[in-house]
Design goal:
By secondary structure, the protein is mostly helical. It has one domain. The protein contains 6 helices and 3 strands; from the N terminus they run H-E-E-E-H-H-H-H-H. Helix 2 packs antiparallel against helix 3 and helix 2 runs parallel beside helix 6. The longest helix is centred in the last third of the chain and has 55 residues. The chain is elongated and about 105 Å long.
Length: about 200
């Protein structure tokens, strides 16, 4: 049934993931009052808006897991380059690969801002106190805002490292350019000297 639903909505999706992401979350709609538990919510009856709100928060949690994993991978790569820099005094990455790496980081940041709404509550929660309580409770249950902050801090560390890497590569390139100019000037002087001596 899930696969059938995914096939039906896929023509309307952009940036569709090949990887299937999921999280199990139990919804009990026969409770006397709203209760939040580990991977479970008990609610007193369910309407479309409440169920939609629960699905939104569960999907945000799943998305955070995915983006947290991607950020951790980028941090590992960054740590590898900083350790190489510490051991060898060189970055061990070419200008082209660094640009690709910067592109990968920027794409991840853009996708996160496009797909995560952990600080924004849906408009219907502004007018309905019951929905607002459920939204706030789910945000706390999934620890959405804290997890989002962790991802943002990780990406900030990566960004700072990338700026340093970029500066180091620019310095290396400008030094190489200076040496090329020095060699060319030396050859020009040598050429003039040979012309003067042998004429």
């Amino acid at each position: 049934m899930i696969d059938e639903f995914l096939q039906r909505i896929s023509p309307y999706c952009k940036n569709l993931f090949e990887q299937k992401l999921s999280e199990e979350f139990e919804v009990d709609i026969n409770s006397k009052e709203n209760k939040f538990g580990y991977n479970k919510i008990e609610i007193a009856g369910a309407d479309v808006q409440t169920l939609r709100l629960i699905m939104l928060n569960v999907s945000q949690s799943v998305a955070l897991d995915y983006y947290s994993e991607q950020t951790d991978k980028l941090l590992e790569e960054t740590n590898y380059y900083t350790q190489t820099l510490e051991k060898n005094g060189k970055l061990g990455i070419s200008g082209t690969n660094l640009k690709k790496y910067i592109g990968k980081t920027l794409n991840l940041k853009n996708r996160i801002s496009e797909n995560l709404y952990v600080f924004d509550s849906p408009p219907e929660t502004w007018e309905n106190e019951q929905l607002n309580k459920i939204d706030q409770g789910l945000k706390m249950t999934f620890d959405l805002q804290e997890r989002f902050r962790d991802i943002r801090e990780g990406l900030q560390i990566i960004k700072e490292n990338l700026e340093l890497f970029k500066d180091l590569l620019q310095y290396k390139n400008s030094t190489s350019l200076e040496w090329i100019i020095i060699v060319l000037v030396f050859l020009e002087v040598l050429n003039l000297f040979i012309d003067k001596v042998f004429k």
